[in-house]
Design a protein that fits this description.
By secondary structure, this protein is of the alpha/beta class. Helices cover 46% and strands 21% of the residues. It has two domains: 171 residues, Rossmann fold (3-Layer(aba) Sandwich); 174 residues, Dehydroquinate synthase-like, alpha domain. The protein binds nicotinamide-adenine-dinucleotide and zinc ion. The site of nicotinamide-adenine-dinucleotide has 29 residues, from helix 2, helix 4, helix 5 and helix 6.
Length: 352
């Protein structure tokens, strides 16, 4: 078991290990002050893990109410959000009670946002069950829902009071979802930690899950502590994301986030190499580790198809974009590019 303390405005522990779901009740009890818990999860995760968590929380002496919604990004909307709030109200959840998000990043983001706003803010606990949520989404306090016009357009900074990551839940995760999370782990290694990159290079699926997640969380912790509100250093976590967001949007969100991030990282890294920011060992090693894990290093979309999504509404607001470029494995830097330079960056990275 590993424990990482995140020292932000209201600090919290991230605990990673096998079998933590069945101990959730005791950990939540240790937070103090609550009488009831609202347990939120999507229908898939509810069927797999809600019984264990519910029993553990009830055994610890809490009243438990549950809220379930259909799985998938399409549920991360105002309707689900308002139904969570209605449920909390009708079940008499009080200001000192706790919301618990059991599931992937969708559940964490929407439950966190509901917790941030219900009665002007109640505490919430994250129980991530996807690799992506474990290594990225469950830590850092960004909560959000989507609007028809764009992802994560409504949200709040609201740090969890506790994150319990039970690595056994990864055993039921579909292969593609696992890969999507692994891409974020590769991203984390690329921006900050060559030793972590070496570990991923040498490992197979499921191996060292606890170590892998702990290493990623510890790096994310450093960025979040340095920049809780995402106005500076934390932007480094966007490595590969400029083109990834465009690929996701162009696909109508049928390409999973992490899968798009893999392609986005490979493209910008080739581009960086072609411009002399890094040596050619950097794209070579990155491409090798992505390919080995069944992740893409390219996209079928053309620059012409992707560019409108990169620009988005930026053209109305600014003439440049901050892009994260690798210097070497484990070190990146933020650079400004004019909007007119983005197409060339794409072409340099191998997009047609
Ligand atoms: N807040 C942040 O900092 C942050 C960071 C990155 C991503 N995100 C958000 O996270 C979301 C993506 O997260 P995600 O990839 O976890 O998606 P998700 O929550 O939709 O989970 C993916 C799928 O896996 C299923 N699932 C979850 N755990 C399972 C398990 N253990 N076994 C079997 N199936 C399981 C879910 O039912 C779902 O169908 C996006 O909405 C993104 O915006 C947020
Ligand atoms: Zn991401």
């Amino acid at each position: 078991m590993k424990k990482i303390r995140v020292n932000v405005s209201a600090g919290y522990d991230v605990i990673i290990g096998e079998g933590l779901l069945s101990a959730a009740g005791e950990y939540i009890k240790a937070l103090g002050g609550a009488g009831k818990v609202l347990l939120v999860s999507d229908d898939t995760v509810y069927g797999l893990y809600a019984d264990i968590v519910r029993k553990s929380i009830e055994d610890a002496g809490f009243g438990v109410c549950t809220f379930t919604f259909p799985h998938g990004e399409c549920s991360k909307n105002i309707d689900t959000y308002s139904r969570i709030l209605e449920k909390a109200l009708s079940d008499n959840i009080a200001r000192n009670d706790i919301f618990v998000a059991l599931g992937g990043g969708v559940t964490g983001d929407i439950t966190g946002f509901a917790a941030a706003t219900f009665k002007r803010g109640v505490r919430f606990v994250q129980l991530p069950t996807t690799l992506l949520a474990a290594v990225d989404a469950s830590v850092g306090g960004k909560t959000a829902i989507d609007l028809p016009g764009g992802k994560n357009q409504v949200g709040a900074f609201h740090q969890p009071s506790l994150v319990l990551c039970d690595t056994l839940t990864l055993n039921t995760l579909p292969e593609e979802q696992y890969r999507s999370g692994l891409a974020e782990a590769v991203k984390t290694a690329m921006i900050a930690d060559e030793a972590l990159f070496n570990m991923i290079e040498g490992a197979d699926r499921g191996q060292n899950a606890e170590e892998l997640i702990a290493a990623c969380v510890d790096i994310k912790r450093r960025f979040v502590e340095a920049d809780e509100r995402d106005t500076g250093a934390r932007m480094m976590l966007n490595f590969g994301h400029t083109f990834a967001h465009a690929i996701e949007a162009a696909s109508g969100y049928t390409v999973l986030h992490g899968i798009a991030v893999a392609a986005g990282m490979a493209i910008i890294t080739r581009s960086a190499c072609n411009r002399g920011y890094c040596g050619d060992d950097v794209p070579a090693r990155l491409e090798r580790v992505l390919t080995k894990n069944g992740l893409p290093i390219d996209t079928g979309y053309t620059a012409e198809e992707l560019l409108p999504y990169v620009y988005g509404d930026k053209k109305a607001q600014t003439d440049h974009i901050n892009i994260v470029l690798p210097r070497k494995i484990g070190e990146c830097e933020l650079r400004k590019f004019g909007l007119c330079e983005i197409e060339e960056l794409m072409l340099d990275g191998g997009i047609r």
